[in-house]
Amino acid sequence: MTDTLSTPRLSVVLATDTYETIRPVLSALRQQASAREIEPIIVLLDGGAVRLEDLSGFPHAKVVRSLNHLPEARAAGVRAASGPIVFIGETHTYPQPGWAEALLTAFNGGPWAAVVPAIGNANPTSAASWASYLFDYGTWGPNRHSGEIADPLIYNTAYRREVLLSLGDNLPAALDPSEESLWPLLMSRGHRAALASDARILHLNVGTFTTLIREKFCVGVVLGTCRSARWSPLRRLFYFVASPLIPIVLFWRVLRGARHWPSDTLLTSAIPGVLIAALAKAVGEIIGYAGVKLPSAAARLQDFEIRKVQYAGRVG
Tens digits of per-residue pLDDT, 91-110? Predict the structure, then answer.
């Protein structure tokens, strides 16, 4: 799979269960003008297989096998990458034309350790999808201006590979969003991030309110459980007592992040769904702070993450 005439400029880490799950992502990568300079790193979690013909058009592609845990898998992908810039992608985010060049141009134009693309909604056909999108990614939408940002993402973000590798054995934990450690650690080392509004991707979201509630509840449980393991009993007690305020804070953050979006009937109809999502996540967090063990929540959340297409409903 090695092209002796060139080296990859951009590596894309895709942790997945099977090749079929990421086929649309690879199709979107093939549409990039510099596709042959992109190195897909396919990290297989469940024993699936990839044929060489599946990777046609990507002379630098690699296949890696890893433990059935997303942060570990993504860390393995980063370590296997050979491009100077590494994008940590998802099974359900689709780069748009010009995405790769815009990302690389942003890195060349500033001292950034990471660059976040502008993220749009890949299935804007339901209020539930918009509620899910606004809750997770509305802050980094296509209407936000390019430039330095203080609130970078962990996934759907491109990094200088050397910055991630400098984390050493801490890389898997840093890539776990429930640990909440990556950007506090990088910023303490003086690293900075930017958003590139002309580097655009589309994110697929859950398509029904029932699935949205289940997903955000699992997110809350996993987050609350991880925080409880790190925090002192006094801090856990404080958050438990203050828990009625959690959905209000979450709801306000989403509205503040989406304030630049144009007024739209479907967007407006998504606002109640955002509140529902905030309530579901808050309930999950409270359970985690209370020390209630729900190990199935982490497995269910990983299923939502990897197989989002199955929960998205009608796309387009």
Answer: 999 999 999 999 999 999 88
Regarding whether 225 and 197 lie in a shared domain, the answer is: no
Tens digit of each residue's pLDDT (9 = 90 or more) over 238-282: 988 888 899 999 998 888 877 656 566 566 788 899 999 999 999
Residue 3 lies in a domain: no
Q: Copy the structure tokens of residue 167.
A: 């984390």
175 to 164, 178, 235, 279: CA distances (angstroms):
9, 9, 24, 26
What is the pLDDT averaged over residues 62-74?
A: 91
Query: What number is the average pLDDT over the span 196-206?
Result: 97
Where among 203, 237, 271 does a domain terminate?
A: 203
Residue 275 CB coordination number (10 Å): 18
Q: How many domains are there within the chain? A: 2
Separation CA 98–CA 33 (nearest Å) = 7
Q: Which of 203, 230, 245 is the last residue of a domain?
A: 203
43, 16 Cβ separation under 8 angstroms? yes
Helix and strand numbers (H, E) in the chain are 12, 9
β pairing state of 193-203 and 147-149: antiparallel
Q: Residue 243's pLDDT is what?
A: 85
Beta bridge partners of 121: 203
Mean pLDDT over residues 114-141, rounded?
A: 94
The answer to whether 220 and 247 are in contact (CB under 8 A) is no
